[in-house]
Amino acid sequence: MKQIPKSTWIKIRKKHLFPPLPFPKVKKGQERAALEIKDKQIYIDENFLSQISKKMQENDAIEALLDHAIAHYTFCPWDFATYLKLYAEAKKVSKNKDIAKRATDYFMDVVVDTYCVKEKESNIPSLYKYMEKGKIEQVMCALYQKIWGKDLNVSGFDELVRKLMRIPYINKKRWKEGIRRFTHILKPLLEEQIYQSASSPFGDHRSLFSKDSIDKGLMELALSSSSPQAFGELVNDFKEELQEKGFFGNEVGRGRGQESMANILYYMKLAQRYTLSLKKLPEKKSGSIYPHSHSPWEIEKPYQDIDIWTSFGKFLPGLTQVWNRREGEILYLEEKVPNCLIIIDSSGSMTDPRRNLSYAVLGAACACEAYLKHGSKVAVYNFSDAEVGGKYLLPFTQDRIAIYKSLCKYFGGGTYLRPTDIKFFECDDMDIFFITDMKISNFSDVVSYFNNIENRVTAVHIGESIHSQRFALSVSKKNNISLYHVQKREDIPKIVLGKVKEYLHQAF
Amino acid sequence: MRKSLKNIYDFISDHLYFYRPDLEINGEKYNSTLLFSLLTTVVQGKQLIVGEPGLGKTTSAEYICSVFYQIPLGTIWLSEVAGHPEQTEEKIVGRPNLGLLNKGIESVVWSNFVQLPVKIVDEINRLPETKQSIILDGVDRGNWQYLNEMFTNDEYCLFATANYQDLGTFTIIPPMLDRFDVMVESKHPGANISYLIASFYKKDELLRHEKYERELNKLLNDSKLSYEVKMERIEKVYANFSKHLEKMGLQPISKQKRKAIRNKIEDMELDLDANAFLRTLISELSFCYKYGQKRANEKCEEGCHFTGYLCHSIKNCISNRFPISVKLYAKALAWFLGDKQVNVEHIKTVAPYALSHRLQWREEFIAIYEKETRVDPLPIYLAKVAVDKVLERYGEQRESIKEALAVAYDISQGRQIAPLEGDHPIYWEIKRDLGGL
Amino acid sequence: MKNPFFEFKDFRPKKREIPLDKIIASKEKVMDALIKAYDRLVEQEAKELVWLVSYHSVIRAYANAEKSIKDMQYGVEDIEEFLFEIENPSRLPYPIMGLCGLYISALCNHIKEKEIVLDLQNKNINLHLLGYRLPKGKRLIVYGDLGDFTGIGLNGGELLVEGNAGNWTGAGMRMGKIVVKKNVGRRTGEDMVGGEIYVEGKILGVGNVRYGRIYEKGGIVSP
Fold first, then answer.
1. Which residues of A touch B423 (CB under 8 A)?
2. Where in the sequence of chain B do the CATH 3.40.50.300 domains occur?
3. Which residues pair with A339 in a beta bridge?
4. CB-based contact (8 Å) between B274 and chain C?
5. Partner C contacted by A188 (CB < 8 A)
6. Among B41, B73, C40, C96, which residue carries the largest CB count within 10 Å?
7. How far apart are CA A44 and CA A15, in angstroms?
8. How far C126 CA lies from chain A's nearest CA (Å)?
9. Are the beta carbons of C77 and A166 separated by less than 8 Å?
10. What does the pLDDT look like over A57-112, one tens digit per residue?
11. Which of C20, C21, C77 has the CB atom closest to A162's CB atom?
């Protein structure tokens, strides 16, 4: 098996300002892709290297391939979030996920190769000159000839190239419009090639990303998506890739009434973006003081605190030491955070979490994350008209997917909360997180239930209404109930998080 | 000289401190704790070593110091300060000479901790802040005061350890933390190396020498000898011990050579990229468009234009000690690796270890990265992520940033040209320096 | 104090250039000019509080459009790129579809190329008035759908729409040919005084045609 010379790697790393990537490897590949990049590990295909080294210096080829691979980490796409953004633009134009994926792959290749040729004095042009080319690669090379000013042994495609060469590939700020135009121009050609297996000669870019990068990308996508549907649409395009990385399990489904995994992922990633990092306070003031440190004794200071040992039996200002006393701090083992029952209203007056961003689900998700993070369990009581079966009860669990599934369920219809249902969950030590718009038909039952329990309750009402005011008035004397109100999108993660935090801090 | 230093590193990693490499520089792999400990002794720095109990936090420092200064391990043990709340200045620094005191004469008996160049404080987080401060002040200034006397170290370095145990016991307050040059973690070596360690539990013996330890102890506690005489005699014992080390294949570094190394390191220069990158990094860690600079008691303004930079992810402002530490260690690292100048890789390698204990991250930033797969403790990992991010940004506009600095020089020399515009805080800082804002 | 920038006194940046830089720079120059000219047009027309399509407003706006692009050097790719800019609010904050259509018509009518191909597919824009006064000897091919008043006042040119067109298609055309591959709306050919309109799909309604011919799915529907 061939080896990449250490000196080459050192040279390339320096050229790219020392990217945090491991030493690349040569691998016997099955496909015709020259490169495979998996979770930051770059593999160069041995067959490709043998073939190309007949036409150019092997080391030059290695350098060019490494330039290309590294630039994917340092320039484009950089991370999964950027990849998704580019893909989303390509999809808008192509309306087809396979074409969008291919267009994104080719676009990113043009970007990194042009960047390397311009900024890194790369050997990439020679690589293109001597490598085997399919039709799209020929178009790309024709484009490169024009924009790099190098002869790559290609002719034709003037019409396409005239359009393609007007895209400002290395201007990051204009990638979005750039990829739209790129996809638009290449769409007929990509459609023609759709049934051919390989995409870019350097391999596709989906394996480029680690699970962590995908996770962050999904968080950013959730934040920037206009609705759970828009998020779901994009995420479903990467179902296989996400499944492979363990994001979906085996239960991807988008049936009616089913909580799609994409939907669950949307709320999960949004909530995790606001994950609390609660500071535990394992030390507690003991209430008694103890000798802490020394300071020199001065004439006017009392002498009962003199430490005779460190004063060497002398009463001399400056030499004699007194003990300074401090209140002691006791080391506690980790304080327990109680379990939490989330009561969530999914009646018709609440937003359907599958269509639009539901503040209720997001708020509940944030609370869920906060409790789970502390090793506590979460139970869910999702209700609409509970009297006629519009309810879902999830017992205490730490199964995040099950919790999110329960939170994302949407019943619609009327609102009736059965206090007896809540009794099903009751345990010694349980917090209640209640999120609703307070438009509950058996309002007085609910108020009387909450007035009679001693659990700590965080009640969050969505929107301001007469019902929420009534509820606030009815429970105003209860110290264990804190009421928060959410008016706009930004309120929920901030207010709920802030309060939950404050409130969990009080536990210590 | 460089070879001797490499020889020390190799000897310790081969015979005494068995740990996995966790750092790659110039294509070579190193263990961060060992490498930084070596650099700390060379540059006379202050290093905080954190980690779980029993994972070699103190021993790594002891081995390095023993070999570098040619002091038997037993003597180093005797000089260590253990961190506990009742620790006194008398045990750390010195005490009055009781015999003389009874005769009405004030004289100080200095502690071994003060007298030896090697200063190791175990579990510093359990010391009250006042005592932490005494130690850090002493090391900072290179001299120690007790009563009206002063003791000066011409060579010194400080290693302090802190257990995780629980965050609650980690009570080194931020201003105190800032005074450490670097923070490293002594990691678990993994099952196989750990198994190996168990078979070599008597490896300390290599650096022990009963005779010299006794001699040194006697000299250190002899308060009748004048400082010069005492030091001369101590040096002689060190020299004898170094012969003992030579027998094991080590190439001990004499005091003159140590001085020469430090001079060479001092003379190392940063190349322009390293220089500009460090400025770029500092600008992200201190800049605030709205309030002039970062302050721990001020929050970022809603909708600030600079949310993409580190200033938005941290709460506090980086101190001036940070660039001092980075430059010092990066120079030492570059010299150690045989490079002619300090380059970006040296800065990039050192910076996270000089940053991790100095930054207070915002919760949003922590939330994004805390669950990522990693081998480093969260503060070091976050610092590495941050430095990589700044480096990526720097890489994209390195020519432009360097040009902006060059243009700034021309402007400062009276040329009538406009400073270079750019999004990054460094351009704004340049403009501020030129009085443009 | 030592000059903090001293170390950079001799630094001179390495300016690497590839042909792409020049291509983009010259293209940007043209695009900036095109966008500025459009902005001028919007400015002039903004005097009318609400821009409604009327005989006079179209003539006036077109005259202004012609004036704003006078002596300008551009190519078909530039026109096509301008279509992309319509979707980009940061570059073109006031994309009024009627004015855009007239402006692009003026660009097409004054370009030296004989054949112009514009691809509107997968774009979120609905251009009105495109093909206005397309002169003899010009062929404008449009992929995608067009809005109302397509090809009005056509002046001998050939307009081929590979998609749908809206109401008033070919209204007032004098001569030339309009081919619409899919459907057109109401009042098709209203007041046309010559030329031919071929619709390969359905015509929702034919207007009052003075002279000229209108075909639907190969069969003549007017006269």
1. none
2. 2-258
3. A430
4. no
5. no
6. B41
7. 19
8. 16
9. yes
10. 999 999 999 999 999 888 888 788 888 889 988 988 888 888 998 999 999 999 99
11. C77
Q: Across A92-194, where does the E strand assignment appear?
A: none
The answer, for C7 touching chain B at a CB cutoff of 8 Å, is yes
CATH classification code of A339-505 = 3.40.50.410
The burial of A478, by beta-carbon neighbours within 10 Å (0-12 exposed, 13-18 middle, 19 or more buried), is given as middle
Which residues of chain C does A168 touch, with a Cβ-Cβ cutoff of 8 Å?
Answer: 20, 24
Min Cα separation A3/chain B (Å): 14
Mean of the per-residue pLDDT values of chain B: 89
Contacting residues for A419 by C-beta, under 8 A, at least 6 apart: A445, A446, A449
Q: What is the pLDDT of residues B33-53, one digit of tens each?
A: 999 999 999 999 999 999 988
Contacting subunits of B (3+ beta carbon pairs below 8 A): A, C
Q: Is A168 on the interface with C (CB under 8 A)?
A: yes
Shortest Cα distance from C144 to chain A (angstroms)? 12
Q: b vs e for A198-221, b when ≥16 Cβ sit within 10 Å of the residue's Cβ?
A: ebbbbbbbbbbbbbbbbbbbbbbb
Which pair of tokens denotes residue B14?
């081969």
The count of C-alpha atoms lying within 13 angstroms of the C-alpha of C121, restricted to the half-sphere facing its C-beta, is 17
Q: Using one digit for the tens of pLDDT, what is the confidence trace for B285-309?
A: 999 999 999 998 898 887 888 988 9
pLDDT of C158 > 50? The answer is: yes
Q: Taking CB atoms and an 8 Å limit, are C24 and A168 in contact across chains?
A: yes
Neighboring chain A residues of B96 at a CB cutoff of 8 Å: 312, 314, 319
CB within 8 A of B85, min separation 6: which ones?
A292, A293, B126, B127, B128
Residues facing residue A10 across a β-bridge: none
Q: Which fold has domain B2-258?
A: Rossmann fold (3.40.50)
How far is Cα A267 from Cα A400, in angstroms, rounded to an integer?
12
Inspect the interface and report whether the beta carbons of A163 and C84 lie closer than 8 Å: no
Q: Are the C-beta atoms of B108 and B146 separated by less than 8 Å?
A: yes
Query: How do strand A378-383 and strand A339-345 relate by DSSP bridges?
Result: parallel
CA distance B292 to chain A (A): 27
Under 8 Å between Cβ of C121 and C80: no
- Picking from A109, A148, A121, A170, the residue whose alpha carbon sits closest to that of residue A12 is A121
Residue B406 sits at the chain C interface (C-beta within 8 Å): yes
| Inter-residue contact A66 to A8 (CB < 8 Å) | yes
CA distance A474 to B242: 82
Domains of chain A, by residue range, sit at 1-209, 226-273, 283-331, 339-505
The strand ranges marked E within A351-495 are 378-383, 391-397, 430-436, 457-462, 481-486
* Range of lowest pLDDT (A75-79, A317-321, B208-212, C201-205): A317-321
Phi, psi of A118 (to 5 degrees): -75, -50
Q: Which residue of A has its CA nearest to B132?
A: A293
Contact A146 C24 (CB under 8 A): no
Instruction: Give me the pLDDT at residue C202, please.
Output: 92
Q: Which of residues 311-330 of A touch C (CB under 8 A)?
A: none
Distances in Å between the Cα of B334 and the Cα atoms of A434, B29, B328 are: 59, 15, 10
* Assigned token pair, B134: 């005494």
Most confident of A207-221, A455-469, C39-53, C72-86: C72-86
Residue B198 is encoded by which pair of tokens?
């168990």
Closest Cα partner for B219 from B232, B206, B207? Answer: B232
Q: Is the ipTM of this complex over 0.95?
A: no
Q: Which residue positions in chain A have pLDDT lower than 70? A: 1, 29-33, 195-201, 204, 206-207, 248-260, 274-290, 292, 299, 327-336, 428, 488-508
Kindly list the residues from chain C whose CB atom is less than 8 angstroms away from the CB atom of residue A95: 122
Q: Where are the domains of chain C?
A: 19-222
